[in-house]
Structures are given as structure tokens and as C-alpha cells.
Model the fold of this input.
Amino acid sequence: MTETRKYFEELVSNFDALCKIQNDEIIRFVLLKNQLFALLSEISNYKLLEIEMPKLCLDIAQSEDCKDLVEEQSTLVLNLADQLCSLLTGKIWYGGELLYHLNRLTISSCHLPKQIQEEINRLDGEKDDGLQLRIRLRNIEDPSEAIKQLIEKNKIHINSTEGKCKKIEHAVYLDLKEQLDKKVSFYRSYISEHYPLAANYFNFSAKCIKAYLCDERKDLVVCRIQSYEDPTDTSVHLSEQILDFIPRPPHNCEKIDKQISSWTWFGIKKSDWKISDENFSKETIHRELLSIYLAHAGENELFEFVKFFIKNGNLQVKFNVEDYTFLTIDGDSTYDCLKIFNKKEINEKDLESTLEKLNNYSPKYNKQVMFTSKPDNLVIDYFEKNHVKVKYIKDLTDLYFQNDHSELIHLFIKSRLNLISFGEPNEINEGKLLIKELRNCPRGKAGWPNYEKIGAEVFKFLFADSFAPYIAETQASNSADTLRRDLIVHNSFQSTSTFWSRINVDFKAKLLIVEFKNYKDEFDYDTMHSTTKYLSGKTGNFILIFSRLGGKQSIQDQQKELLGEGKLIITFNDLELIEMLEEKINGRNPLYRLDLKYFSLLKK
Done:
């Protein structure tokens, strides 16, 4: 039995026991909810399951008192049912058991009062492009003796190790382990020999590696590999069993108290049990190297990189002596003028001056801009509307990988690594972890407390270095305790040229108010307008809203109206936040996006 199945079964058992509680069983109820809290704490500490209970539930589960049994029971079973169904329909890798487990939950829920059963049946799943992602209890017919018998019959098969945690032949295991050790050893030796300065930035270099065989199919088995930060342990481990019922990455398949760094997976054919040469290959290393290089290269380096690979395509490159980030590219049928954007902030002045300089070139040239990573959609829209093509530096190297010529990328970057200043790998890992947590956080009531926690960490990660010092408070109330703000930040801006200084002047923003809206759908004007109650002459008239899908199209008109009243509200959705986190990871300050949002409202 996997750790995942063990803890999932304990949650199901706890759910069943909570459903069966009677009104006179207060002592037993307190014992059960405390057991649930201990279980959830352990799951969270070891990142074993992707489950997030609202803070209210955790407070109830942790308490050794019971103020209202019916109300507390209802709150716990509703949210636990929601989370268990969510796990079963997308957050665990397993096969052939969905209806079995959902029927078990349905039968347990029939012990509840009719009112609570109806609330469970009204639980809504998350939607993506109009598709229901979670199967709910309401999708299962009412339990009957036939279903109960089916469950009992299947129980024998489910608890069986056959096909669930099947041990592979020892000789096969030893051969696989030897193959994996050799490939990882080559990977690490190559990196250590050629890129010692950047070794810690590679996904599986100088890290502990855990490999698991899972998701067995007719012809192949999936090998899932996860690496962990541990300077004292760089060993490679391989499970001898084919696991079924494990969490989707980046959660752990076993109790591990180390920070996960990266993960990957690949298929192994059962006909020969050979690990493909593509895994941990030179090409894989070179792709990682390119990403690391572009994340840390300065303006001069990016220019040299672009110039080298354009010239290598038999094209002539000329750069502007006044600003070498502007190039012209000439060939038999190629006439381009190009602006290279490095990792500096991009504001409206940058956009306008870039367009002006590109327009100064001869009409025969096609206007282009090139980025290290995807910029804000406002930037893309601005250039595309002005007939400027948006490109990415990685585009220059695609053909080299496709034609197995990545060695040239390796040679160029290797010769220049000593010219690059590397930041702390921990910051990169923190950013990647925030992206994963944001993507995995459930929308709606169940994930609300976690979204607020993630939102506060995202704001700090993105912008803390803009303040001196960074002073913030979550769940902050006013003196009368009548208003609660999700996050307030003291606007102690470092530079008078930043966005924070600008809104301090324009909107008297002594405090920055940040609200987190974990809605399943786009929020409307009423939701946005309700946040204006936090604004005052004392603290300022600026609010930043993080939400999952952003606001409806119509709110832009209301934002403009509020701006006319001297109130600035800026919003970011998940996609934008993830792009900003990626920019920060790559060494670029995402603060320019706030300037662009402000500029976009001003010009309307």
C-alpha cells in the first residue's frame, strides 16, 4: 500500500465516522475532528496529498471544544467530501477505482441529515473552458444493496497488491537501477566538467533523486523522477515496486521532509526495460543550460548571444552605435530591424521610444522586438497593433535542437559563463514553488484561505525588494475592527522613480491594500466596487486585486470611472501572476506591469 493510499483511506474512514455521528456523541465527535486535524497536518507537512481545507475547518478540527455539533459536523463533512472528490478526479494517479470510492462516499453521506446531503449534492466543481472537472456525489445514484455488494466484491481487488504495488523481478530492478545510475552519473559529470559555476542550477545536479515506477499500462511503465534540495545527500533511489495510487507532482510519494526542486517522467517499454537515450542526454543538458543562461545573462551578454546566432544563419548584423540593443539584419530575402529587450523594467516610455526608433529605420525593414521570456499581454498587444512582430530569443536556437546541433549552443555559452553573475538558486526554487502552488490551489470556497496565503507570498516574492524595509500584515483590521484587509503593505518605496512612488504622489497611497479573490469565475463590478470601502484619505486610494480569472470585460469601464474619482484599482489574474513570477525567476523586475496597467487606464 502506498503512502498516498494509506492517508487517503484514513481520510475516507474519518469522513465515514463523521457522517455517522449522532447528536449525543459530542466526546466522540471531538476525538474524530482532532484526529482529522492531526491527519491533515501530517499530510501538509510531508506534501503527500493536494488537499486544502478552509481555515474555518482547521479551526474547528483543532479545537477540543464543540459549540454546535450539527454546524461543525456539516462544515467538516461538506469540505472533506469536496476535497476527497477533487483528489479522486484529477489529483491522484491511479486506475479502475473511481466509482468504487465515490460509491463509498455516497453511502457514508446517507447517514447525514437530509439537509447536509442536499448541500453535498450542490457542491460545484471547478470549470475550465466550460467543462466540469470534478465528478461530484450527485453524479452517483442513491446507494442500494447492489452497490454495497459491488463495493464489497471490489474491496478484495482494491486491497490486493496485484497490479497496485506490484514488485518487479529483482534482476529487472537491478538492471534499471544500473541504467539510471549511469545516466545520472553522466549527466552530473558532464555538468561538473563543463559548467561548474552553474551546476547547482541544473534540475538533477547536486540533489537527492527519488525515482518511482508507476502508472503501469499494457506495454509500458512510467518512471517518475523527483529531485530534492539536500547538499549532504546526492544519492539516487529507485522504487522496486510499480506503484499505483500516488499524488500528481509536485507532491511526494512518500514521507520526505526535503524541499522538492524539480520533477520529470518518461516511459519504459516492458518488452526490454530500457531507459531511452534521450533521458539525461547532452541535448537535455543543453536545453537546461540555455534556460539558465538566458535567466542570468545581462544586457551585453544577450546582445552577443543574439548577434552570434543570427550571424551563424549567414545573415549580416549591424547594430546602432548609440544603442546596441537595436540591430538590423540583412540577407538574400531578409530585412529586419530588431530591438532586444533585456531584463529591465518595461514602462510606457520604453514602448513609445522603441516604436519611434523602429519607425526611423527604412521602410524595407520588418519591425521586430525580441524578449527573453513572454512579456505582459499589454506589451504584446501594443507592438502587434503597431505592426511590430514579437519574437523570443529561444526561437534562435530551435533549429539547432531539432537538427541535433545543440553542441554549438553548449560551446558558446560555456565560453561565456565566467562573465555571468549568478543569483541564489533558492530564489529560483521559491519562485517555481509559488507557481506550482498557485496552479494547484483549488478555486472557490475550499481553497480560499490557501489562496490568500499564496497571494501574500507572491506579492512579497515579486515586490519586496522595491521597499526599504518590507513591512506587511495579513488579515489586517482597522481600529474599530469593522474592516478586514487581506494584505496591507507599508509603502516605504526605495526609489522615487518606481510605480510605488508614483501612486504615493498621485493617490496618497501610504498603505498598499492587496485583496485576494479566489472566485471560480470572473468577478463583476459589485465585487470590485466593494473593495473601495477600504480607501480613505488617511491610507490612500490604491487597491491591488489578485483573482483567479480576473474581472469581466465590463469592469474596465468602471476602473476608468473610479480613476476619475481619484481611485486606482489594478487587477491581475493567475496567468499574469505566473508570467510575473517567471520574469522574477529570470531576473527581471515585473514592477513595470503595474505601470502598464496604470498607463492603459489613463489613455482610455
